[in-house]
Amino acid sequence: MGEFSRRDTLKTLGAVAVAGAAPTLLLPSSAAAAYDVKPEKGASIRMMRWRRFIQGDEDQWLANTAKFTRETGVAVRVDNEGFEDIRPKAAMAANVGSGPDIVLGWMDDPHLFRSRLVDLTDLAAYLGGKYGGWYPTAVRYGTINAGGDKGKWIGLPLGAGGALLNYRSSWLQEAGYESVPTDFDNYLKMCKALAKNGHPPGFALSHATGDAETWSHNVLWGFGARMVDENNKPAINSRETIEAIEYMRELYSTFITGTLSWTGVSNNNSFLEDRISLTSNGPSIYYVAKRSEDPKLRAIAKDMNHAAFPVGPSGVAAELHLLSQAYVFAYTKYPNACKAYLKFMWEREQYEPWQAAATSYMCPPLKAYAETPFWKSDPKYEPFRNVVERMRWSGYAGDVGEKSASALADWVVVDMFAQAASGQSSAKDAARDAERRVRRAYR
After folding, report:
1. What is the pLDDT of residue 147?
2. Beta-bridge partners for 167
3. Is 20 exposed, middle or buried (0-12, 13-18, 19+ CB in 10 A)?
4. pLDDT tens sequence across 304-340
5. How far is CA 207 from CA 37, 137, 215, 305, 415, in A?
6. What percent of the chain has pLDDT over 70?
7. How many CB atoms lie within 10 A of CB 429?
8. What's the chain's average pLDDT?
């Protein structure tokens, strides 16, 4: 990640954590009709966003931005930064009071600087009223849910990078499965059969940002375990967590060697090199293979598909995905221009073409965009359609904010599973160590 780590960012800010009950999701249609914002005279704005994972995303985003400039006269500079560089650079801007006007960041980032952001409540109400309402987890991430500012929107969710199962269909069939099982027990049996046939799964149990946190939380929550309770009290050292760890040890035994040290590209490369049959990723593997001139990769595209993670003993879908949202710093000279730009980019005329160009990399937080024509263009993208509807937030079941972000940045859940899976610790010792680290994050 470079010299300025995620944990350094959190220490620098000293922000206040927030969350609570989600406000009403489906706003009245009058909210959509009432909202209008005019850019300030002579306005120009600068946006910092994450560098594209799929080229079509960036190309269409810039095309939409150029369209906004043509229609409004407001010049927009878009700076594309690396995934892990967004948070530290945003933290620096917040501390010095200058830099990008708008940031497109990740997950609970806006809660780290909530007192330094423009209120986006009117814009969120307009979009929610016009496009069918926001999914609950989008509301959780985008709003302050407790205290005097309860219901205030400080972030505007763009979508979530869905971390779904990518699998080779023919190898599943050889192992006796037509599709990925939807329960944990049969899923484990399938993984064992794949490994026995010489086509092992491969999932990051390392500090690979985005790849490791997502699916490992699915296992934790699948057993009904959680890091903290609704009052932000540590709850990770539990019977349910021990069960999740024991399950993870069996699952890990089916993996290809080396997943404890994987980087963010290891799963992609291993899948495209025919070394693994199953992994957790967005649609980027399929995107690359489908558009490749290499016959081997195009064959992989034809032979692969996507599926949601199975449901555990808890009986409910419990997935973590990488939600991205925009926020506007209060130091901007042109808050109305920033709101006008975000409104323009989230409107159907721009959002739908961008959604199609990004090929489901960002799954929609607004309910109406789960019903767009794109989702019928290729059945292999369809499993990503309702990712935001199914997902939880990283600090479940407590607050979204600085404390939950600190625990995520400290890799508490990933390290707990990795320690036990590798044989470094027993299940009970790994859970106790995780509890100690959660207490440190939530003190």
Report:
1. 78
2. 278, 305
3. middle
4. 999 999 999 999 999 999 999 999 999 999 999 999 9
5. 42, 24, 13, 26, 8
6. 92
7. 14
8. 90
pLDDT reading at 191 higher than 70: yes
Please state, as a whole number, how many other Cβ atoms lie within 10 Å of the Cβ of residue 250: 12
Q: What is the pLDDT of residue 33?
A: 56
And the tokens for 139?
């509301």
Which of these, 361, 426, 345, lies nearest to 61 by C-alpha position? Answer: 345
CATH 3.40.190.10 residue ranges in the chain?
6-161+321-382, 164-319+410-441
At residue 278, what is the residue type?
Answer: L
Instruction: Please write the tens of the pLDDT for every residue from 149-188.
Output: 888 999 999 999 999 999 999 999 999 999 999 999 999 9
**Packing angle, helices 427-441 and 239-252, rounded to 10:** 120
pLDDT score recorded for residue 109: 86
* Residue 112 · residue 12 · CB < 8 Å: no
pLDDT at 23 over 60: no
* Measured CA angle at 209 (ends 229, 354), to 5 deg: 100
Distances (CA, A) of 77 to 42, 66, 101: 14, 10, 10
**Band of pLDDT at residue 433, cut at 50, 70 and 90:** very high
pLDDT of residue 87: 85
In the chain, the amino acid numbered 177 is Y
* Confidence category of residue 401, pLDDT binned at 50, 70, 90: confident
* Architecture of domain 164-319+410-441 in this structure: 3-Layer(aba) Sandwich (3.40)
Residues 6+ apart with CB under 8 A from 355: 159, 362, 364, 369, 372, 374
- Distances, alpha carbon 165 to alpha carbons 63, 117, 127, 216, 285, in Å: 31, 36, 31, 13, 11
Per-residue confidence (pLDDT) for residue 144, from 0 to 100:
87
**CATH number, domain 6-161+321-382:** 3.40.190.10
